[in-house]
């Protein structure tokens, strides 16, 4: 099958969508498909990656004549399906949808983000102007939480399936020979993600402070918050003003190998963002055997059940209680960790993800 992926952002930019699309391209290529990418992200020349780049303010990944460029590219390549990847608002990706529908090509739109009330209003307005919900497209979302607002806006005319993000589970699973140095009673709490307001990193350090207050001083705590972004300075000031530098560290961005090594020493993983559409970092932690604490209304709830793979909370207060509980209760923590090591989130394994995506491709082809 000839597959053309369209994404505003792609490598060398590093983010959830960029890495997930790159892994999908690699997995489909290994499965024998002919896969190409068109993106508005500048970068080095790579075989199969078409960069439609313009000089834009703030290096925005969009091209003012993107539809025309992609019409010519798609007419020349004639892919069997065009797979478009969108975030909250992705103008270049939607140009790809428009170009593909004009040419009568099957189109699948994957929504990688949570549509908040403002975003839903934007898409309703765009539907009034352009009638995109009447185009012959099929859609997928990366979790049940992400699918709900898309279905509410698109209505019954656009089928919206849930197809999980993919992960190579074997590369995160603890190996029999792995030896983790004993730390006594110390509990190591880990979080991984971009330090941007949408991820609520400042509320994360506040969460840790309140959880620490609920745990006896006889139980030592340590926290490692991996990532970088615009909220880092605010977080550092909060840590200094509350005397938390001794047990909370901000080491910056880590590679996948570094994150894998960090998770081997983790006792609890925290993903506090309520608008987390999926939570690939939380999935990596769950696959590595670490109990996960996350929002019940986020996409993490698709692979974390309360008391089984971790604990879920619907509010900031409930997350504080969950982190404190896991820190105090070694037996609960170890039982969840044992369950995570012994079971796999198989629906997130690449073979199952590819099967779900191919089903959406068939649905899109039938709608043309």
TrEMBL record:
GO MF, one annotated term: glycosyltransferase activity
Keywords: Glycosyltransferase, Transferase
Occurrences of domain Glycosyl transferase family (ranges): 182-342
InterPro entries reported in the protein's UniProt record: Glyco_trans_1 (IPR001296), Glyco_trans_4-like_N (IPR028098), Glycosyltransferase_grp1 (IPR050194)
Domain of life from the UniProt record: Bacteria
EC number: 2.4.-.-
Domain Glycosyltransferase subfamily 4-like N-terminal: 15-170
Name of the protein described by the UniProt record: Glycosyltransferase family 4 protein
The organism of origin for this protein: Sphaerisporangium aureirubrum
Lineage: Bacteria, Bacillati, Actinomycetota, Actinomycetes, Streptosporangiales
């Amino acid at each position: 099958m000839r597959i053309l992926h369209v994404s505003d952002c792609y490598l060398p930019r590093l983010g959830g969508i960029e890495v997930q699309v790159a892994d999908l391209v690699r997995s489909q290529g290994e499965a024998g498909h002919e896969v190409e990418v068109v993106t508005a992200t500048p970068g080095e020349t790579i075989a199969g990656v078409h960069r439609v780049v313009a000089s834009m303010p703030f290096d925005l990944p969009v091209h003012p004549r993107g539809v025309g460029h992609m019409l010519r590219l798609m007419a020349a390549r004639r892919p069997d399906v065009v797979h478009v990847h969108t975030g909250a608002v992705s103008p270049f990706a939607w140009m790809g949808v428009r170009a593909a529908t004009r040419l009568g090509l099957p189109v699948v739109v994957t929504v990688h983000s949570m549509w908040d009330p403002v975003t839903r209003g934007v898409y309703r307005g765009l539907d009034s102007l352009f009638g995109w919900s009447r185009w012959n497209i099929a859609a997928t979302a990366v979790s049940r939480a992400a699918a709900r607002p898309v279905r509410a806006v698109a209505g019954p005319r656009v089928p919206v399936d849930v197809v999980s993000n993919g992960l190579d589970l074997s590369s995160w699973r603890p190996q029999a020979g792995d030896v983790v140095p004993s730390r006594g009673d110390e509990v190591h709490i880990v979080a991984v993600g971009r330090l941007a307001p949408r991820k609520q990193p400042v509320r994360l350090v506040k969460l840790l402070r309140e959880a620490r207050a609920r745990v006896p001083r006889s139980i030592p705590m340590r926290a490692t918050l991996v990532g970088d972004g615009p909220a880092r300075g605010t977080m550092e000031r909060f840590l200094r003003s509350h005397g938390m530098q001794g047990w909370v560290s901000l080491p910056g961005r880590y590679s996948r190998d570094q994150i894998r090594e960090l998770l081997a020493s983790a006792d609890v993983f925290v993903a506090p963002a309520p608008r987390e559409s999926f939570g690939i970092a939380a999935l990596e932690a769950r696959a590595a055997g670490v109990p996960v604490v996350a929002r019940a209304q986020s996409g993490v709830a698709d692979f974390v059940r309360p008391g089984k793979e971790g604990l879920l909370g619907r509010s900031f207060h409930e997350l504080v209680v969950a982190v404190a509980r896991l820190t105090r209760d070694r037996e609960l923590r170890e039982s969840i960790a044992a369950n995570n090591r012994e079971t796999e989130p198989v629906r997130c394994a690449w073979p199952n993800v590819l099967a779900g995506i191919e089903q959406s491709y068939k649905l899109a082809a039938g709608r043309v």
